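Let's do one together. I've listed all components of the complex below, 455 residues spread over two lines.
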Amino acid sequence: MSDAVTGTVFGTLLNFRGELEALGGKVNEPPYQAPPKAPVLYIKPANTWSADGAEIPVPANVPQVEVGATIAMVMKAPGEVAGFVLMNDISVPHASLFRPPVKYKCLDGFLGVGGTLLALSEAVDPTKFVVAVRVNGVLKQSVAFNNLVRDPARLLADVSEFMTLGAGDALMLGCDVGRPLARVGDRIEISAPGMGSLSNTLAAEAA
Amino acid sequence: MKHARIVHEGVAQHAIERDGQLLLDDTRFVPFDAVTWLPPLADTRLPRTILALGLNYADHAKELAFKAPEEPLVFLKSPSALTGHRQKTRRPAGVEFMHYECELTVIIGRQAKKVKRDDAYDFVAGYTVANDYAVRDYLENWYRPNLRVKNRDGATPIGPWFVDAGDIADPMALALSTTVNGTLTQSGSTKDMIFDVPFLIEYFSSFMTLRPGDLILTGTPDGVVDCRPGDVVVTEIEGVGALMNTIE
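Okay, and this is what the predicted structure of the assembly comes out as:
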C-alpha cells in the first residue's frame, strides 16, 4: 500500500448524489428524520488495511461482501493534500445507516489500499476521476466522481471544521451506488488513470 | 504502578507516580503541576484503534431515552481526538449542550483475535480514564453518534495514568465520579455496565484484531450535565486516577 497512508483512514457516506436519491423519502423517516447536514464519516482502522495483491479474509458467516471502490485524498500536512490513492472499502452488506458500521466495516483486511499515489498538481482534476471495478476480470461498475455532494476541497473544508487531518491521514471521497457484490474466491480489481490498479482476492478466513 | 507520559524541560518522557509526585526515569522528582501531561500511551507503529461504547450503562441509556441495547453500540475515534490531563477542550461557539462522559478505558496489551471471555483479562495491559466529551447539538441520525459529536480535536482527554492491570483487583467494581467546579454531578460504578470488559474484548476480537495500545472506552453512567467555558471538569475512577480538564 502507498507509504503515504500512515494515519487514520476516514470514509465518507452519502457523498454521491445517487446514494441520497436511492434513499429517497426514507431520509425524512425514522430513524433518520432528516437528510444529513455535516459529512457522514466513519473510520477504517489499521486492522482493516490490505495492500495491493493481498488476500482479504472473509468469515464463514459472511456469504458475500459489498465492494466500495473509491479514491481517498491523502494528507501531506493539515490543510495540504499530498495526492490521491485507490481504496477498496469492503463491507458486510447492511441496510441500516443509523448506527456506526463497526461490525460491518472493520473486519480484518476489509480495506484495500492502493500502492500508487497520484500527487496533487494543477493537472489533477478530481471531477474527472473515473474508477473501473472488475470482478474476476468482468467490468462491474464504473464510478465517476463528477457527481459528488461535496467535492474534495469542500469535503476537506467541512471536515476540518471539527477535526484536523494530519500528515498521513486519508479521507475517502465516497462510494457510489451500484456497488458490486463478491464472494470467496473472487478477485476484485479497481483501477483509475494515474493511480494504477488495486487487486485483492477474497479468501475464506482461516478457522 | 502508575505510568505517565509528560513533557518536562522540553522533553517528552515516561514517568511514574511516587509519593504524590512524578518520578522521572532519570530519578528526579517533579511536582504534578510542573509538567505538561500527554495521553499516557506509548506510540504505536500503526495508528491505534480507539473503540468507544455508547449507552453501556442502563441508567445512562434511560437518561437519554433509549432502551438498553441488545448488542454493544460502538463507534470509533481517531488519535487526533485525544489530549492529556490538565489540558483544555474547546466548546464550539453557539452550542447548547456539551457534556463530559467519565469512562473506564481499557488499554490492550497483546494482539487479540477471537478471544474467549474467560481469557479476556490476559489481553489487558492496563487502565486509564477518558472523558469522552459530546457536543449534542451536532447529533445526526446517520452513523450516530457521528464524528462531529464525538471526534473533535482534543475533545477526549485521557489519563493521567496508565495503571498496570495487575494493580486493579476488579475493574468491574470501581466507583466513577465527575465534578464540575468541585460539585459532584456524576456518580456510578463500573459494576453497572451492560457489557462488561471481558464481554467487550470477546465481542470485538470476534471480528477484528486488537493490537497492543488499542483502547476501549467503556461508556458512562447517568449524570451528564452541560459544561461552559471556564468550567473545570474532573472525571475520576477509583484506583485509576482523576483526570482534569478545563473547558475553553
